[in-house]
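Researcher: Let's run the pair from yesterday's discussion. Sequence first, then tokens, for each.
Model: Starting with the first of the pair.
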Amino acid sequence: MMSPNEVRPSPLPEAAARETHPHWLRRAAAGALVLGLGCAGLSAAGTFLVVPAHIRQADVIVVLGGDGPPRAAEAAALFQAGLAPRVLVSGDGDCRDIRDAMIARAVPRDAILLECASGSTYENAAFSGPLLAGLHARDAMLVTSWFHLRRALACMSHAAPWVRWIAAPAPPPPSQFGMLEYAVPIMKEYVKLNWYALHYGIVPYPATF
């Protein structure tokens, strides 16, 4: 029995080390797992996210907001090539910035129609559908980031099934190292693909497009 005034000795350093090491090991293992999943996701992006471009004549080019500059450049190049007479820009964040970037690349202002109310890919499609119907569009080229195109095409086909959709991705980076720039949005895209399947019933199977 210890007396009331007796002080219990502090744990030996070795004992403390034995208590704390498992915590560090668990954290290191969790970190390694996350890193491994991230690397696997980036490596698989070319297989699961990319839709090959099939460029051909269309009634309208649809450009989605988000990663504005490369999307604006791709859409302007398609317009300048004479592949469509009209452009529809959809997205509340940067629709006017994309329009202005396209005008700076010699796309006429009166050829560009804006939809600046949508705040998600699902809304891009839902709000663009009536506008495409008003344009009597039967063939539409969809321009968005390469890693976003599969989900975007699925949403557009769901909202405007009468349109024949044409994949026109903004180009991917030239190498695997270039993909590191898009690491965060790529990993988010995997989550969003599953969320859209569960919440909206929109499942972009690899063979769909």
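Model: Moving on to the second of the pair.
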Amino acid sequence: MPIPLIPVPESGELRQGEILSNVWVHRAVAPARELREAPDVDQHHHPIAVVLHSDCDLLQDFNARRAGAAENRDPHWSERSIVTQVLMCDAFVVDELRNRGASKDLWARIKNNQDERYHRLEFDPIAVTGTQLSELLLDFRKAFMVHTPDVYAALVADGIVRHGYVPPVYLHDLMQRFFSYHARVGLP
């Protein structure tokens, strides 16, 4: 049964389980030491991503940034901000995994959300990059962080598109599976 996504306002804090599209990450290509010259910048595009950071931290961070803006400070930074980087996970159109050669056994486990690495979301159709999507696949190995001020700046500049967020009853399962995957004991 498809999940109805909860709509998000055009402005406001990010939400846990929110589906975003057109997320760009820019990273300095440099060793972790003091720099004497400007580094090269590497950019990576995430066509579809899901926010995994906790709602309470995202709300407190948003309120701290808004309070900083009210005090005539840069609205994208505050010494009271809580979240310096937002945790996200790449989401893919289901057919992409099938085209990568997933075995029938693996695909059967994924389809029923029985594979620990993947989480399948089936929801009412949304428009992403000109395509109507009703099913996404999260690959828990494809988690990444984005600098919080960059996310809010891209939202204001219409770079990142907000599509809605997963209802709490389904979000609990998603978050439990994501953190269980990353908390597992890794064996060689």
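Researcher: Give me one sentence on the second I can quote.
Model: The longest strand covers residues 131-147.
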